Structure formats: structure tokens, C-alpha cells
Amino acid sequence: MRVFDNVRCRRIGLTAAMGILLLVGMTAGASAAPLLFNENFNYPTGNLVGNDSWAQTGSVTTTPIQVTTPGLSLYPYPNDLGEAVTLYTGQDVNSPLTGPVTAGSIYFAFLTRVTSATATGDYFFHLGVTSANTFDFFGRVFAKSSGSGVAFGISKSSISTTNPAVYASGVYSLGEVHLIVGRYTFNTVSTSDDTVDLWIDPAIDCEPPAPDVANVIHTTADATTIGEVNLRQASANAPRLELDGIRVGTTWSDVVAGGCGACCNEATGYCIVTSELDCARTWLGLDVPCNGTTCPVPPPTGACCDFTTGACTVTTEAACGFSWLGAGVPCNTTTCPVPAPTGACCDFTTGNCTVTTEVACLFSWLGAGVPCDLEHCPLPPPLGACCDPSNGECHYVTEANCPVGFNWHSDWTCDPVNNCPVPPPTGACCDTATGACTITTELGCAFTWLGANVPCNTTTCPVPPPKGACCNPDTGECAYVEAAGCQSGWTWMVGVLCAPTNPCPPPPPVGACCDLLGACTMTTEVLCVAPSVWYGTLDCANNPCPPPVPTKDTTWGQIKSNYR
Predict the structure, then answer these.
(1) Tens of pLDDT, residue by residue, the chain (564 residues)
(2) Residues 83, 66: contact at Cβ < 8 Å?
(3) Staple partner for 295: which of 77, 271, 408, 494, CB 3.0–4.6 Å?
(4) Where are the beta strands (DSSP E) in 119-163?
(5) Which residue ranges form the domains of the chain, and what is each CATH number?
(6) Do residues 271 and 262 touch, judged by C-beta distance below 8 A?
(7) Cβ proximity of 260 and 26 under 8 Å
(8) How far, CA to CA in Å, does 304 sit from each of 310, 313, 333, 545?
């Protein structure tokens, strides 16, 4: 597809040396001069003829020139991402320029990759007059083998022994992409003084370097007009190659560099004329010159200091919103010192707070950047009367500082009037039964109140003698009495209670006690004294005692006489 507008998509070559892909767009507002011809072969693969304005030259139709993929690229040559065409032997083709050129110079450039060539060589590209003119060819580009590589040459028009093609001295690698640039210059001294020049892989810049083949002039007639591009497939000596990215224009910069203009470093006012692609600063547009209007020297810059914060930027005096310290003055802690930090200064006793420096703070400085708010400097809790119920004393404190048992009143003060009630007098309250004594009011005494200010001691509230259990050993009866009140023979246990459980041992069992006369009494075993006999739990109601042994009155002498 032919491209005659000014939008280009630049492509880094897919060569092994580059190995990357880069798309570079034009700077907004910039535009290159319209090219006379810009062909990137954005067509489907197949025959070239029939696409856009491509037409056959002459009558040979065999082996038509083919659109093949992929296209060629060589960074930073400004061709588009398209396909390529393959040339060898067979059909020739042509396509018109946007308009004829009859004076000055016409530049043409293209990429090619030659895969084979013959030692004799032949031309494969040239400029023509019109499609109807199939014999006046100008700016013919040749390729031939040279050692293991390829050499490129050019002729003004048809060649002969006296007007041969002139080859560059360099030998270039087969199979690699090369940039070919040619120039046809119209001269006006005679009708045969036009010249052609050839560059192979030139540096892509705004101005052309010295050509590899320079000022080729033939005695053949000059061109009166150039109006088309021609691709040629020769016969026996044709090189085998691919071709892409044809650009034709009237200036080197348009064809090779994509147009040049002012490249301005706006920070310094330094300006050079270069291509947009090579401009590392601000490209001002095609053909824009470098001068004090297009790229003015900026006003001087210096430190712009905000002395309230120490913030500093280097800028112009006009752009400084604070204190501009002069041209060339740097930003540092000497020229623009950082002020002491400020923060909340809090009087915790009142809750008053101001933002100031630590040095200027007369109360508690809470730190740099700390704001004055209730979170950091809270209002103190309210004060009130704290009444001591024991003596009516008043303390003007917060509720939290009022001791437990005291009474706090938020709406009272201690001065000038003490509203705390004076308590009634206290004195000894004596439990005479136990000797327990507490100091309390008469109303609060549950025992015997001994009077105001009477102390508790063993004199005013003596401890009574101790009591305890007094046990009747005969009956197990228990009496809770003092030791003096326990009957003789009974057992007294100090501090032991008679209730709820009787601590006294039960009495021994009572049973029949029989004397020798057969009399029966109910008593304990201990109290039944021999010769009486105790019969356990037998009851005297049914007298269990044996009758007495019969006796006879006698004397001791008679008794002894009976046993002699």
C-alpha cells in the first residue's frame, strides 16, 4: 500500500544485531514534507501488479514480481511495517510519483537483501519518465558479486563501454539488509551534465554524508522529467533479492531521516537541527529553525524558599510563590533552613493548647506535628467537693481522686462554704457479753453506747470471763457457764458451747445392784461397791437379787470348835 501522508510507524530492524521491535510515533503537531513516493508493500502476498498503481513495464509477463512476507527493516530507517517484494528474472513493473520532477535533486531510498548475484551484475531499480516510456531509465542501481559478498553501483542512464556503471568500493554481506540511497541532480549548463550519487548503509542524519559513489556523469542525454519508479528483473545476470521501503522525495532529510527540524532543550535553550527520531528533547517540527524565538534561553533559576516550612525548589523568579533567593542559588539547609518543628503545647491542668516549637512551649510539648485536639490535649475532668464522712472535711478534687467511702458532689465547692455535713459524735459501743467494742455514733450502736469520745479499751468495755461447757458426769447434762459457776465434780471446758451439739459424754448405764441381803438398788457399775453385785441393765422392778444366805447366831469360839 502506498503511503503519501505524514503518519509513519517506524520499525526497528528484525536483524540479529537489533533483536528488538520499536514503534516510534510522530510528535503531536509535527509533519514531514509530503514524499513523492512511499511504498511499504502492505498488500496480500502474490502478484504485485494490480495493487495501487503498479503496472507492468514492457511486454514480458513471465515470473511476475511477487509480494512476499515478511518485510524488511533497518533501524532507524523510517519505513512502515509492511511486506516486501522478491526480484530475480522476469516481469518489470512501474508506479508513478505524485508529480513529475524537472529540476533540483530527486532522492530515492530503499532497503534490499541480496541473496545471490553474478560477477557481471545488472540493475534492478531505476527511475523513469512515464509508464508509456519504456526506454529512458535514470538512476539505475546495480548489484554484482564481489568475493563472498555483493557490491552496489549506479549509472545515470543506459550503460556502455564509455558510460559504465560505477560501483562502490565496499563489499557488503549477502543475506543482510542494506539501505541504498541514490540522488539524481538536474544541472543546467548542458543537456548531458546531470549527475547521480549513491550511498550504501549511510548514517541516518539530517544531512547526507559523503557518497560512496559520487558525481557520476555520462555523456548520454539528461532526463527532462522524472515521474515514476521502476523495478526490474533482468535475465542472465540478474541478482536475486528482496526489496522494501521505497521512499522518493526532494530532500535527503525527508527520504532518509523522515524530516528534520529544531530539537530544543527547553531547560537551557540549546538547540540543534535533527530528525524527530534523533531528538532527545523537544522536537519543534519539520523545517523549524533554531533561534531565540523557537528555542529561547529560559530565564535564570535559583532557590525558591518557603521559610515557614523550609521547602525549597529551584525555579525562576516569576514562578516562585515564596522567597526567590537569586539566580544560581542552590537549595540547601544554609540558603533555606528548615525551621524548628512545631507541635501541640498542652496545659493538662486546664486543657489549653497551642501549636508552637518545643523551646517556646511552657507546658507539655507533645511532639512535632501533633495537633491541638481533644485526643492529644483533653479537657481535665471536672472538680467537685469530696466530703470525708468521718469528720466533714472537704477536698476539692476530681471524682477519680475522691477516696472510696467519701462522698463526691460535682456541684459543690469547698470554698468559701463547706457544704460537707458534720457527722454526729462517736464513742465506744460495747458488747458487754463479749467485750467487743467499736467506735460509732449512738444511733449506730447496737449494744451499749458509752458516750461521746469514750474510747474502746479493757477499762471502758472489759472482756468478761470466758464461758464454757460444764458437764454433769452422772447425767451428761451440759451448762454454758463461767468456770466459777460449774459445780464441783462436773467437767468444765473453756470456750466449748453446749449447742447445737452437746459436748458432754453420756452417763454410764444404770442397772440393778444387789447387796448380800438381797436388796436391789438402781445405780451405775462404779457406784455398786462389793460385796454388792451389779447386774448390768437388769431392772430392780423385778428384783433380780438372790435371797440372802441363812445364818445362825453363834460365837467365834463355837465356830472354831466345829472344825477341830
Answers:
(1) 554 333 333 333 333 333 333 333 333 334 446 899 999 999 999 999 999 999 999 999 999 999 999 999 998 898 887 899 999 999 999 999 999 999 999 999 999 999 999 999 999 999 999 988 888 899 999 999 999 999 999 999 988 888 899 999 999 999 999 999 999 999 999 999 999 999 999 998 888 999 999 999 988 899 999 999 999 998 889 999 999 999 999 999 889 988 888 999 988 889 998 888 788 899 998 889 899 899 999 899 999 999 988 999 999 999 999 999 999 999 999 999 999 899 999 999 889 999 999 999 999 999 999 999 999 999 988 999 999 988 889 999 998 999 999 999 988 989 888 889 888 888 999 998 888 999 999 999 999 999 999 999 989 999 888 888 899 987 889 998 888 889 988 999 988 999 889 999 888 888 999 998 889 998 888 889 999 999 888 889 888 999 887 777 777 777 777 776
(2) no
(3) 271
(4) 122-128, 137-146, 149-155
(5) 10-257 (2.60.120.200), 465-507 (no CATH), 513-564 (no CATH)
(6) yes
(7) no
(8) 10, 5, 13, 140
Q: Cα–Cα distance between 168 and 212 in angstroms, integer? A: 6
* Distance spanning both ends of the chain, measured CA to CA: 184
**Omega into 425 within 30° of 0, i.e. cis?**
no
Q: How far is CA 307 from CA 300, 312, 335, in A?
A: 21, 9, 10
As a 3-state breakdown, the chain gives helix, strand, coil percent values, each rounded to 5, of 5, 35, 60
Identify the sign of the CA torsion 41, 45, 48, 49: negative
At 37 the three-state DSSP class reads: strand
Answer for the pair 15, 178: CB distance below 8 angstroms, yes or no.
no
Query: Which of 193, 47, 55 has the alpha carbon at shortest distance from 130?
Result: 55
Residue 554 class from Cβ within 10 Å (0-12 exposed, 13-18 middle, 19+ buried)? exposed
If 0-12 CB within 10 Å is exposed, 13-18 middle and 19+ buried, where does residue 74 land? buried
Q: What SS3 class is residue 433?
A: coil
Q: What does the alpha-carbon distance between residue 236 and residue 122 come to, in Å, rounded to a whole number?
A: 9
Q: Tell which residue, 425, 63, 31, 463, has the closest CA to residue 231.
A: 63
Please tell me the pTM assigned to this model. Answer: 0.51
CA–CA dist 524, 368 (Å, integer) = 102
